[in-house]
Amino acid sequence: MDVWEATIVEAEAARNLNPASMDVMQSKIKTGQTLKAITADILREETQAQRSAPDAGSSTDWILEGLHIEDEQ
Fold this sequence. Notes:
By secondary structure, the chain is mainly alpha-helical. The protein has helices spanning 3-14, 35-52, 58-72. It contains three helices and no strands.
């Protein structure tokens, strides 16, 4: 039996008295940013970009016009 299997057997045997013993099953791998954090970063970057160089609506108007043309087709 390898170390990992022995650790699992010990944790399962102890879990009735100490549920925290099952913490060995939790992943130690960091998963990265959450979708909420990524969205917040994007919105923050867009806000900073607009403050430094205001768009005056030209890009937005161009995109909306393209979507309107696509809808009509």
